[in-house]
Amino acid sequence: MSIKIRSGQPPPTADVKRRADAADPAFVLEDSPFFLMNQAAGAYAQAMERALKSIGADIPRWRILMLAYERGPIRVSEIATLGVLKLPTATKVVQRLTAEGFLQVGRTAADARVTAVTCTAAGAAMVAKVRGIASARFHEAFGDFSSVELETLNNTLRRVLANFAR
Fold it and tell me: Which residue ranges make up each domain of the chain?
């Protein structure tokens, strides 16, 4: 996926904050951080979907397997929240991954009403495969970034998330 970014200089009187504000007359779509974040996330999703297809996986499966592997035992509701998935979607994918032997579902000791999801050995093996694919996409996207640039980007995105959480 490639977008055509506006070439040339921005209007001399409009700073980037004005050009990024959709209500400002100086607004330029390509200067909107939301437009750029969406384009970047979309490009990543398309690249990952193509690569994951080769091993019979997709992005929801990848997110759920990773969360169960990294955070398990984990509740399905937490998987949905952290994986940015709707709860019914997360539930269906967990059920499929369980039927395929990648996840195990059980009740928590603290509350028998709560379902806890853990990764099986087969799930851990799939996570290793998917991490290799994700690593290739990471290097494709960030190979020319310095560690400082990547840390700055991560901190900026954390700040955006924190601002929305308020």
Answer: 14-54, 57-165
Cα(8)–Cα(31) distance, rounded to whole angstroms?
A: 13
CATH number at 57-165: 1.10.10.10
What are the structure tokens assigned to 35, written together? 């437009």
In eight-state DSSP terms, residue 71 is H
The CA-atom distances, in angstroms, between 11 and each of 6, 24, 68 are 12, 13, 48
Sign of the alpha-carbon dihedral angle for 119, 125, 126, 132 = positive
Return the axis-axis angle of helices 59-71 and 121-142, rounded to nearest 10°: 110
CA angle 83, 85, 89 (to 5 degrees): 125
Summarised one tens digit per residue, pLDDT across range 5-62 is 555 555 554 689 999 999 999 899 999 999 999 999 999 999 999 999 999 899 999 9
Global pTM? 0.79
Q: Residue 45: which H helix or E strand, with range?
A: helix 33-53
Contacts of 126 (CB under 8 A, 6+ apart): 55, 57, 65, 102
Distances (CA, A) of 38 to 44, 45, 49, 111, 112: 10, 10, 16, 39, 40
Amino acid at 58: D
